[in-house]
Design goal:
The structure is a homodimer. The first copy, chain A, contains ten helices and nine strands. Chain A is of the alpha/beta class. Chain A has one domain: Divalent-metal-dependent TIM barrel enzymes (TIM Barrel). The first copy, chain A, has a nine-stranded parallel beta sheet with strand order 3-2-1-9-8-7-6-5-4. In chain A, helix 1 packs parallel to helix 3, helix 4 runs parallel beside helix 5 and helix 8 packs parallel to helix 9. The longest helix of chain A has 22 residues.
Chain lengths: 289, 289
C-alpha cells in the first residue's frame, strides 16, 4: 500500500473532547493542517449551532459526518416519539452544518428511566431500529441528508447499538432503499470474517446503482489488553488491526472519502496535550494507515 | 418454555475456581446434587489426573466437557509443534477422564515470548487454526474423542480465539469433517443475528448425517454495564440474555445435552461462599433458564 492521501484525514471531535471545546478543536485543526472534522451534537449544542457552522465555514474545514443520530428503541410510544423528534432535529442540524451524512448509532435494548436495559428482546429492538430508520429516511431523504448506519462492536449490542455487523447494516440498506449508507469503523468490525465481502457489497450498492453506500471510514486501533469496553481505544499503530489491509478493501470497493480518526481514551489520549494528540494523528495516519 | 430438566445442570469448575480446588468442587457438586462437571486442565494437573478421574467416578459425576485444548496459532514451527503436542496431551487427559468432548478455544493472533500479539495477520491466524484442528482431529478421531470448537465473543479475537461466530465454527466443521462439533456459549454468541440459523445448521450436521454438531450449551449472562472484558460475567438472570429463547433454539435443533454454567467473575461470584454460588446456580437454572 502507498501512504494515504493526507488531505483525507478528518478529526472526530471526540478524540480531544476531554481537553478542548469545539471552537478550540476547530482552531486546532486549522493549526495542524487537518482539513476535515466530524463534530458531536453535544459539543455543537454547547458552542451554538449557527456559531459553529460559521466557525467551520470560516476555517475552511469540510465535514466528514455529524455524530450522531440513532438510539431508536424505546419502551413505549412516548419514548419512540421522543427519539423520532430528536433524530429529526439531528437531521436539521446536519443540514445547517453542511455535513455529508448523519451518522446513526442505532441503540440497543430499550432502557428504563434509570438508563438500564428494560427488555431482553433483541430481535424486537432490531425491529424498532429498522422502523425508526425507515421513518427518519422519510424525513431525511427529501431534505437531502444521507443517513449512515455505523455497526458497533458486538460488545455494545445491549446498551449502544444492536446493529453489530456490516452485513446487518447492508441488509437494512437493502430493505430501506436510497439515502441510507454505512460507516466502516475499523474498531467495530475488524474481527468480522465477512468484512471484506460486506465492504465490497456496500461498495456495489446493488439497490442503488451508481450510489455507493460507503459513507465513512473511521480509524483507531484495538489494544491488547483492552482495559475498558468503551474508553480504551488505541491510536492507529498501537494495536492489532491491519489498517492498510482494511483501507485496501475500502478502496477496492470504490471508497475515496475521508479517514476519520475517532479515539475514546480516558486513560491515555484524553489526558495528553491535545496539540500532541493532533500531531500524532497526522503522523500515524501517514505512517501506519 | 417449561423449566429445564435439573439433571442437565453441569458446573464448569471455573465458576468457583477462586475459592475451591478441584477435589472440593467435586465434593461440592455431590453435596448440592449437581450431577455433571466440566473441569479445567490446570485444576486437573494440580489435583492429579488419575486421582481426579477416580474422584469423579467415585462421586458418580458425569462430565459435560473438558476445558480446554486449542491455542493453535504460533509465530514459528517450534511454537506450532508445542501447541500440537500439548493438544494431544489434552486429548489423552480427556480420554482418561471420560469426557464427552475436548473443548477448543482456538487462540488469537500469534504471540511473542511476553505473551503479546506479534502479528496483525488475522486471516493467517485463522488458517493456522484450521490446520491445527485438522491435525488434532487425525489424532483425536481414531482415539474416539470428539473436538468441540467454542466460538468466542469478537472482543477476544486478538488474544483468545479468532473463531468468533457459530457460522465460522460451522464452516470449520464443514471443511474438516466428522469428529468435530461446536459449543454454544451464550455469553459469546447471544448478540449474533445469525444465531438461530447457525444453531439449526449445527443441529442438522449436514456433513455428518445423524451426528449433531451441538456438543455443549454454556450458560451465564451478559451484564450491563460489563466492567471487565474477561472477568465480569453474570449469573443467569442478572443480565440481558433471553436464555429460554436460546435454549428453545438449541432444543429445536435437537440438542438434549447438559447446561453447563461457566462464570468468570472476579468482582462478585469468585468472592462469595462457594456453597452459595452452587445453590444460586441451581436455583437460577430452574427459575430463569
Amino acid at each position: 500500500m502507498t501512504a494515504p492521501d493526507p488531505s483525507l484525514l478528518s478529526l472526530n471531535t471526540a478524540t480531544v473532547r476531554a481537553q478542548w471545546a469545539l471552537p478550540e478543536i476547530i482552531a486546532g485543526c486549522v493549526r495542524h493542517g487537518i482539513g476535515r472534522i466530524a463534530p458531536w451534537r453535544d459539543q455543537v449544542a454547547q458552542a451554538g449551532l449557527a456559531d459553529t457552522a460559521r466557525r467551520i465555514r470560516d476555517a475552511g474545514l469540510a465535514l466528514s459526518g455529524y455524530c450522531r443520530g440513532g438510539m431508536f428503541p424505546a419502551l413505549d410510544a412516548a419514548g419512540l416519539r421522543a427519539a423520532r423528534d430528536d433524530n429529526r432535529r439531528a437531521v436539521d442540524e446536519a443540514l445547517t452544518l453542511g455535513a455529508p451524512c448523519l451518522v446513526l448509532v442505532v441503540g440497543g435494548l430499550p432502557k428504563d428511566a434509570n438508563d438500564r436495559p428494560a427488555s431482553k428482546d433483541l430481535a424486537g429492538a432490531r425491529a424498532m431500529v429498522q422502523d425508526g430508520i425507515g421513518e427518519l429516511l422519510a424525513y431525511a431523504r427529501p431534505a437531502g441528508m444521507p443517513l449512515a448506519i455505523e455497526p458497533l462492536h458486538p460488545m455494545y449490542a445491549a446498551d449502544r447499538a444492536c446493529v453489530n455487523t456490516l452485513g446487518q447494516a447492508n441488509d437494512l440498506c437493502d430493505a430501506l432503499g436510497p439515502g441510507l449508507g454505512v460507516i466502516v469503523d475499523i474498531y467495530h468490525v475488524w474481527w468480522d470474517p465477512a468484512l471484506q465481502r460486506e465492504i465490497a457489497r456496500a461498495g456495489r450498492a446493488e439497490s442503488a446503482p451508481g450510489a455507493s453506500r460507503l459513507m465513512g471510514f473511521h480509524l483507531c486501533d484495538w489494544l491488547v489488553p483492552t482495559q475498558d469496553l468503551l474508553l480504551d481505544r488505541g491510536m492507529m499503530g498501537d494495536g492489532v488491526i491491519d489498517i492498510p489491509l482494511l483501507r485496501s478493501w475500502m478502496e477496492d470497493a470504490g471508497y475515496r472519502g475521508p479517514h476519520e480518526v475517532e479515539i475514546f481514551s480516558a486513560g491515555n489520549w484524553w489526558k495528553r496535550d491535545p496539540d500532541e494528540v493532533l500531531a500524532t494523528c497526522k503522523a500515524r495516519h501517514a505512517a501506519v494507515c
